[in-house]
Amino acid sequence: MREQLLIGGRWVDAAGGGQLPTRDPATGAEIGRCADAGEADVDRAVEHARAALADPGWRDMPPAARARLLWRIADLVEDNAEPLAELETRDQGQPIGVARNVSVSMAAEVFRYYAGWCTKIEGATSPVSVPGALHYTRREPVGVCALITPWNFPLMIAAWKLAPALACGNTAILKPAEQTPLSTVELARLCVRAGVPDGVVNCLTGGPDTGRALVAHPGVDKVSFTGSTEVGKAIVAACAGNLKRVSLELGGKAPSIIARDADIDAAVAGNLQGALLNSGQVCAAYTRFFVDSKRVDEFAEKIARAADGLRLGPGIDAASELGPLVSAEHLDQVAGYVATGVSEGAQLVTGGTRADGELAAGNFFRPTVFTGVTDDMTIAREEIFGPVLAILPYDDPEELPARANGTEYGLAACVWTNDLATAHRTAAAVRAGNVYVNMLPLLDPAAPWGGFGASGWGREMGSHALDEFTETKGVWINIGGQSR
């Protein structure tokens, strides 16, 4: 498989001829090569995106026609659901059931959701106090949008950036992570098949240098990035030169609070899924478990036993419950965090090792549970992005907000309780963009998604995404009584 760049409606090689390999994380085998875009390719993509932004065929497309276009993309995603899911699994490693029922399904639903918004992006009249003046607002596209996506859910996150950007009339340049480019390239191909005008959607594959060139380009009006907090900070600095609009969905270290009155079996089942979806490679994964000291032993024993019983294997195997980590480099990072946890005094209950035997060639790490974790330990403070669970006991519920909020992140949190008052009080006290009560960290196109602090700026999905991809213009009309 050899993929090219999509620039101005044409599939082309990188100007410099460079290519990057992409590998199956379950085996380490190379499954394809993608063009490695350089600065010249970025320049061409931006040029075509700017031209498309001014082209009447896109600029003046009626909202209803734009809605039909997004709906066609959704239909094509659904029509190609099985090959898309298999591509996502082989490139990223996630279990095939997750690829089908989360990644591909959500991608289609996001395009349908924003197809509905195309005809509802409205301005408003303002009750100004200037005599003889009419004031109204227009919502207009931001312009050329660089959409930079991560490697954990490449198709789904590309969709939830691209769909609102197009619904608002912008043009876009997709830049997938170099580890998992294939499904994003396929999404760009489906956009072409759906009839998106040339230059409206462009796709550049490549490494970090490609992303840096795109972020720094003066012809890009907005950057929407999902990824690490470290890279997010670098993007903010790079965008300061021409004050690009920036939205960021960054890291997380989600606390899950298990109250004394919680249904422990339900909490174990829910937290296991909330922690280990996609092998823990989820920014909202439950990672810090604050358990009432009266229930902590029961919770730890049950969740460790359940984690130890999960079946590791290639994501393409429907029997696999836990797939590989995305790369050998990331596998080393996760293993390093586990070693640090042990050295700092946390008690390893289960896991903590790479898989051996027939899985040794892949990037497999056994689900890992620590007890005896304290708030100052590295595994309780830093984002691991892997199948590592840290259990921390508490005695006084009054101490929970401060401890749960004791990181720089604020993306997601969870509460397990049978008491309604506890649920509402805790949800209000925890500083996080999304708080879940007795449930998994689920997403929906209609619900805003984003975080506080080092977890990012702005919100994706819901009506909030329209604010990220539009500018508000005020128009003043002299209707009498003003000097001309």
From TrEMBL:
The keyword DNA damage does not apply. Residues 11-474 form the Aldehyde dehydrogenase domain. Signal peptide: none annotated. Keywords: Oxidoreductase. PROSITE patterns: ALDEHYDE_DEHYDR_CYS (PS00070), ALDEHYDE_DEHYDR_GLU (PS00687). It comes from the Bacteria. Pfam families: Aldedh. The active site is at residue 249. The keyword Oxidoreductase applies. PANTHER family: ALDEHYDE DEHYDROGENASE-RELATED. Belongs to the aldehyde dehydrogenase family. This is Aldehyde dehydrogenase family protein. It comes from Saccharopolyspora rosea.
